[in-house]
Amino acid sequence: MNYMPGTASLIEDIDKKHLVLLRDGRTLIGFLRSIDQFANLVLQQTVERIHVGKKYGDLPRGIFIVRGENVVLLGEILRRTWRRSVKPVYSRCVSRTFWKSSGCSSTPGWRQKRQNIWP
Questions:
Q1: Do 38 and 76 lie in a common domain?
Q2: Beta-carbon neighbour count of residue 69 at 10 Å?
Q3: Looking at residues 67-94, what average pLDDT do you find?
Q4: Global pTM exceeds 0.70
């Protein structure tokens, strides 16, 4: 990979999914389709991610044009890691002594633990 000065280095990132943080605090996620010498961006299939506490919601925005002076951060999303998933993990209590030591209930059965999966 050769180093190119300025926004020319972003030519390799066209047609890839990016996260853009704007100066007013908004977060956009979409496919980078075009860029110019002023770092003006054109994003396609854009969603605006709104965070409230630990939860978030996505608002579809479609094609989005961002003026370069409003961009605080631009980063490529390598895979679908930006989706937060909660995966249930099941454990089976096997013996009565294990129930008491692990905190399982006194009756055998399945219990569900929630685990946050982050890359």
A1: yes
A2: 9
A3: 67
A4: no
Which secondary structure element, helix H or strand E, spans residue 100, and what is its range? helix 96-102
Residue 32's domain comprises 6-80
- Supply 5's token pair: 């000065």
**3-state SS, residue 36:** coil
For the segment 37-80, what is each residue's pLDDT rounded down to a tens digit?
Answer: 898 999 999 999 999 999 999 999 999 999 999 999 999 998 76
pLDDT of residue 83: 54
Question: Does residue 1 form part of some domain?
Answer: no
Cβ neighbours of 29 (radius 10 Å): 18
Q: Are residues 95 and 63 in the same domain?
A: no
- Both 16 and 74 in one domain: the answer is yes
**Can you point out the beta strands (E) in the chain?**
17-22, 27-35, 41-52, 55-66, 71-76, 85-92, 110-117
Domain count, the chain: 2
